[in-house]
Amino acid sequence: MEDFEVINYSDTPSFFDKDGTAYKAFGDAPATLIFIHGVGMCKEIWQPQVEHFSKNYRVITYDFLGHGQSLLKKDKLTLEDYISQLYNLVNEIGVSKFSIIGHSMGALIAVAFALRYPEKVDTLIPINIVFKRTKKAQDDVIMRAKDVLKSQQIPNINQTLERWFKNKTSPYDLLKINNVQGWLKNTSPKAYSEAYYLFATSDRVFVNNLSNLQPPVLYLTGSEDPNSTSLMSEQMAQETPNGSSESIEGEAHMMAYISAKKVNPIIEYFLNNTYNTTT
Fold first, then answer.
1. Catalytic-residue membership of 186
2. Which CATH architecture has domain 9-132+203-278?
3. Is 37 part of the annotated catalytic residue set?
4. Which residue in 82, 107, 213, 249 has its CB near the most CB atoms, within 10 A?
């Protein structure tokens, strides 16, 4: 079992920056980690990472636009809007340099931010990121985003959960899957569809750009993730000057949440080694 008694995440209050971004901060160490969730999720999904890393780092989690407690202030969002949200947040709370751990859509935001503001990023860990989807795979995701926007409902939640949590059936697993189901059901369909559409199209933004990434990067995914594949992470690592990749056997899309005991040590090892060589 995870050490969820160390910090009661739900009892820690959220703060809001001047733009309406909800965030939580833990720990007071000099080095800062910022975690970015994926589409349909919220900052609470990083509880296992907060529990683990706040002992040695300052840890910040936040809700990206229209998710969780953060506001959705306009229609037709671009990737730049999500980059600006993080930029404004860190400037307001006085964090000048940090490491970013992003999951899925959050991983796309993390890479885009590091390309835009390399001077702010110590290290970068994109988890379950997508890259160079096939045309059919991209069309399928775009169609889903359009369906959500039209119906104002998030469809096929059970099928999504089956894909995200492949072969996870223990009572402990089912409890965590139920948490994710609740967050997904409570997400604004409007905000979901805006983010999901970008998720469908933005992976090609990085084609021929990854050579410009300056910080050490670890692309981390699971062998059972059918959409954010090990091959994608390997390709991105090959195109990144200081990039590496790792695939966790038997894990799928939500591995950071449901299998934190596997994921956290890998993140920790990477951070320890990169901080020791770059500071």
1. no
2. 3-Layer(aba) Sandwich (3.40)
3. no
4. 107
